[in-house]
Specification:
Layout: E1 4-8, H1 13-18, H2 20-30, E2 34-37, H3 45-55, E3 58-63, H4 66-71, H5 73-83, E4 87-90, H6 98-117, E5 121-125, H7 139-146, E6 150-155, H8 156-161, H9 166-172, E7 177-182, E8 184-186, E9 191-193, H10 202-212, E10 216-219, H11 229-247
Parallel strand pairs: 1-2, 1-10, 2-3, 3-4, 4-5, 5-6, 6-7, 7-10
Antiparallel strand pairs: 8-9
Helix pairs in contact: 2-3, 3-5, 6-7, 10-11
């Protein structure tokens, strides 16, 4: 099965802020199968589900802050069920000591168990600092070894940015990886760019997704050089779609 392609809506956050419904309509026009949410801009679960149904989009996942989950887990799970989402992703955390990370991960694991009991999956999304923030500690590896209910949404851009041997790391942790963020890297200045315009081995990432039989690939872009966000992410979709067609042929 070919993976579906979603857009992480943080990529077009200004468009979403201006008119969330119109933003989703434009995402579908670009060809995307679904979206990964990064907030709901004051819309109710019923409204969001209505937009998804109207435009033929699926909820691939949703980034939800740990603070919100801790404060309102039951309510949040109900919201996500209403919109048809099965994957809750903690998008970021940072701590100054390893002990703080350990305590946070233990709390996340308890939450992940509760989410699993509701028939959903709980993820943590990496950046680069989890590999460099605490000297000698790979925080994502610690999650892998000590938090069995937490799945990994690996952002391959940030994994490469951290200086890790990307493919060796992914091979060692592949049984917990459930989602991939695909974005390309401009060499100078080092920042994200349209898929196909940078230096990362995107085709090899797609081949990895095939090996892991992943259901979704998620396009994200955080910096924009030549194009506005909607146009840039549309280019990213077309480039990734072409690679998926080639790799899965």
């Amino acid at each position: 099965m070919k993976p579906k392609i979603a857009l992480q809506l943080w990529s077009i956050k200004e468009v979403c802020e201006a008119n969330f419904q119109e933003a989703l309509k434009e995402v579908k026009k670009s060809g995307f199968d679904g979206v990964e949410f990064a907030g709901y801009y004051g819309k109710s679960a019923v409204e969001v589900k209505g937009y998804l149904d109207e435009y033929g989009l699926e909820a691939a996942a949703s980034h939800i802050s740990y603070e919100k989950l801790r404060a309102n887990l039951e309510e949040t799970v109900a919201f996500e069920k209403t919109i048809g989402n099965k994957r809750i992703v903690v998008p970021h955390a940072t701590f100054s000591t390893f002990e703080e990370w350990q305590a946070f991960i233990a709390e996340m694991e308890e939450m992940a168990v509760k989410v699993a009991e509701e028939g959903m999956e709980f993820y943590y999304h990496n950046h680069a600092h989890e590999f460099t923030e605490i000297p000698g500690q790979d925080i994502i590896d610690y999650i892998y070894k000590h938090a069995k209910h937490i799945h990994l949404e690996m952002d391959l851009y940030w994994l490469a940015y951290s200086g890790i041997d990307v493919f060796a790391w992914l091979e060692a942790h592949k049984d917990r990886i459930g989602l991939l963020h695909i974005k390309d890297m401009q060499e100078s200045p080092k920042e994200s760019t349209e898929i196909g315009s940078g230096i990362l081995p995107i085709q090899e990432y797609v081949e990895l997704a095939k090996q892991l039989a992943l259901p979704w690939l998620i396009v994200e872009q955080e910096a924009f050089q030549q194009y506005q966000p909607l146009e840039a992410t549309s280019i990213g979709y077309r480039q990734l779609k072409a690679l998926v067609e080639e790799v899965y042929a």
